Amino acid sequence: MDADLRILLVVWILSTMGASPELASEVTVPLVPVDAVEGRSVKFPCDVSSPNHADKVYMVFWFKDDSGVPLYSFDVRGMPLDQAHHYSAPDVLGERAKFQTDTEPACLDVNEVQWNDKGVYRCRVDFRNSATKSFRYNLSVIKSIRGKRLWTKIENDVVHYIIVFDGVWAIRRFEIPLYA
Ligand SMILES: *[C@@H]1O[C@H](CO)[C@@H](O)[C@H](O)[C@H]1NC(C)=O
């Protein structure tokens, strides 16, 4: 099947599902898998730098799963970056989330990750003039470490584990920053 036909097919499938044209463009944003351990923290990078130096970030929204209501918004309109207005929906991440713009790239930091936090997170960056940018993450939450540790390695301040979880015949490999 050629590429144009495939794109048409995807657009057609989405339109039959009643999705908006905006969602159709989201399909092209890669979904990055992220693992977090329950009770620990996790970071979702979201680069707010503009492709055009004269342009500036305007608003940043975070969405979860199919919800059209942002769980986090970062409003820079008419303000310097460090005075932007932050809002985190209390029924989703609430005070556990903070959008940090003093890091490169900017990140949504989520503390005390809970089991129900798993799902797909999308960051949408709106600029004054440039095209909107999006990033997507699929967060898997790993129950805190109670399994049998098979292998550990520390590299660049990151602990790598392979663990067999209690009662689960699966081996998961994940990485925890030493100073998280
Ligand atoms: C997200 O990851 C989980 C666990 O690996 C997987 O079961 C699920 O299908 C993924 N979601 C999407 C939308 O790809």
UniProtKB/TrEMBL annotation:
Q: Which SMART domains match?
A: IG (SM00409)
Keyword Signal attributed: yes
Q: What Gene3D superfamilies does the database record attribute to this sequence?
A: Immunoglobulins
Q: Which residues form the Ig-like domain?
A: 21-140
The alphabetical list of record keywords is: Signal
Q: Which residues form the signal peptide?
A: 1-24
**Protein name, per record:** Immunoglobulin-like domain,Immunoglobulin subtype,Immunoglobulin V-set domain,Immunoglobulin-like
Which taxonomic lineage does the organism of this UniProt entry have? Eukaryota, Metazoa, Ecdysozoa, Arthropoda, Hexapoda
